[in-house]
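TL;DR need structure tokens for one chain.
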Amino acid sequence: MLLIQSERTALLSALSAVVGVVERRHTLPILSNLLLEKKSGTLNLLATDLELQISTHLDAEAGEDFAITIAARKLFDIVRALPETARVKLDSKDSQVVVSAGKSRFTLQTLPAADFPRVETGAGLGEAIALPQKTLKRLLQLVQFAMASQDIRYYLNGMLLVLDGKTLRVVATDGHRLAYAETALEAEVAAREVIIPRKTVLELSKLLGDTDDAVELRIGSNQVTIGLPGTELVTKVVDGKFPDYQRVIPASQPRHLHANRQNVIQALQRAAILSNEKFRGVRLVMSAGMLGIVCNNNEQEEAADEIEVDYAGDPLDVGFNVTYLLDGLSAVGSENITLSLGDANSSMLLTSEGEPGFKYVVMPMRI
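>> reply
TL;DR here they are.
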């Protein structure tokens, strides 16, 4: 029985949207599979790991409705390996699916569609919030690098999303640094706070485009749905208490250093070659009109660099993790940045006039 025929490019695009959810190893074999479901001339593709579910659809040629599950990664790899101009056919044969294009044929096992678990959209979702895809994508780019990964404090393995009146805020921290970004909303919305899992943030970043097309958010107490043209994400939220980010962001720092972002990045990258591989420490030595950057390692090697900056405060020598500094500087889009500091024991605040809603805080380290 012929299931579907599709241009390779269209099918690959749909598979790319959902395959990132699928874990390579899972205790439930069916979670390695993708649900293909055809109804009323539309082919729906759905993948889930029980925490996050992504679904998308394709227009399908006329034919019988069906529902099957098939190994997601294998199907994706097969379609990706086919020539760009290929036309892909999927035929069912007993408990198998035959994928063919030209003279290429691949036979894959299936599992019953009735056994495929779905993340049901729960009640209690708030009103829909619409904003341009490029706006949300930029917000995620400004903070997602600061999320923790596999931290025992599970509430740090994600991103805080805050609705407050006409403001949307996103915050991420791993306990050593904190990234904050905000944007204005067109309409006032009810106040809500949820922690979105790390995997959801990363998958959503891939799906969002640099366009003015709308993305629609609906936020509930234990679930968030995110609607894109032709694609929907349903994700559970992290049940935990996020740190008080407003206390972490310094209210006022007496020392302000203004510099060209690219110059600082390049100097840090040069000095980091000789940094300690484990601790990645770098010293920022500030004096009138000058920023010195010094790295040492266990082999008694040292790298020192200097760049001209706009700084008129008292001399200061403070240590930071060079990777954290580079992450924040790389996230900023504008060329001019400001580093605000207190003393050698206080955190540093990175801001930029070109990213007015962005704040990045890095804790100091002893070197």
